[in-house]
Amino acid sequence: MKLKPLLLLVACMAAANVGTAATRDEQTRACKHDAIKFCAIHIPNKEKIEACMKEHYDKLSPKCQAMFDPPGSDSQSSG
Q1: Are 68 and 17 contacting, i.e. CB atoms less than 8 angstroms apart?
Q2: CA 71 – CA 9 distance, rounded (Å)
Q3: C-alpha angle 69-53-35 in degrees, rounded to nearest 5
Q4: I want to staple 28 with a disulfide (CB 3.0 to 4.6 A). Which of 8, 9, 11, 71 is the partner?
Q5: Reduced to 3 states, what is the DSSP secondary structure of residue 13?
């Protein structure tokens, strides 16, 4: 079973674009089911999974959405 590599990948993917100061364990718990449901075809490509999760943002569970900046948000600007 490829669950362990998937969990590691989801944790890395979530850490790359978090909207909160969540830990990797929290990110993994929040997003692993959504990653499997919407983006399993892209495993193990981290960049494609991240893009896929962003594409499906509106379908992600609320807990997983909280791990990402909302689409259209400008988290890079300072005001």
Answers
A1: yes
A2: 22
A3: 125
A4: 11
A5: helix
pLDDT tens, residue by residue, 20-71: 456 778 888 899 999 999 999 998 888 898 899 989 999 999 999 988 877 7
Structure tokens at 44: 């193990």
Tokens representing 28 are: 């993994």
DSSP letters along 33-73, please?
A: HHHHHHHGGGTT-HHHHHHHHHHTGGGS-HHHHTTSPPTT-
Question: Would you say 35 and 13 are in contact if contact means Cβ atoms under 8 Å apart?
Answer: yes
